Amino acid sequence: MMLNSRHFVCFLVLLYRMNESILNKTEWKENIILVDADYVDKVAFDLIVNFERMIGRRIPQADMAKWLECIALDGGLKPLDDTHPACQTQAIFIHQKKQMDNFQPGLFTDLDGKAFSGALGEFQISCVPVEEMVTAEDLFVDSMQVICNSGDVKRVMVVPDADHIYNKVREGLRHVDDEKRITVFAMQPMEGGNYRQEILGYSLMAALGIHADEIK
Asked: Parallel, antiparallel, or unpaired: how do β-strands 121-129 and 115-118 relate?
């Protein structure tokens, strides 16, 4: 049976719950970005509203490709050169809504299965809707564990709804192999764990075209 990317992660999560060894048969890219899309879209909206008032100009929708590249840089990826050969990054958006209103492009049916290339290599995008079989919270945390426990994966950038599930994310990452580079993004410093932390707002501001010299 062929599975499209909309159901791929849900399928893996169910298999993971039944038999963790199935991970050995699943191929992932070395670099993974896992995103709670609805949460990130809400944060982008809040930034747009607040900064339009602060700097007195219209702020456009966030550039999706630029945001993913900024997340990848914060997660430790390096621009391609002789010492850093071509690499691939898999971006997985878990969502309940049909689109991200504050990103361009933001319609999940347009994003799903697409790819783009830039200074950091190729980015492949999969959009995974929350199905009735699992809650958004469980799907995100279980997907994170499936990905982090894969031998193929070396670097994971986790962008959760830190306001509501940060403790579950922290617990879910407790036993991840120390050789993997895990970065968790939140809007403010959170209680630490065996992973790096980065501030989500910086990458969003860059993608929204907000410059440091505009902020007084």
From this structure: antiparallel
**Per residue in 52-69, pLDDT tens?**
999 999 999 999 999 999
The mean pLDDT of the chain is 87
pLDDT for residue 201: 97
Confidence of residue 193 (pLDDT cuts 50, 70, 90): confident
Residue 21 class from Cβ within 10 Å (0-12 exposed, 13-18 middle, 19+ buried)?
exposed
Q: Which residues of 194-208 are buried (b: 16+ CB within 10 A; e: fewer)?
A: ebebbebbebbbbbb
Q: Residue 123's Cα: distance from chain center in Å?
A: 12
What distance in Å separates the CA atoms of residue 203 and residue 199, rounded to the nearest whole number?
Answer: 8
* Rounded Cα distance, 37 and 1, in Å: 28
**CB of 158 within 8 A of CB of 184?**
yes
**What are φ and ψ of residue 134, in 5° steps?**
-155, 150
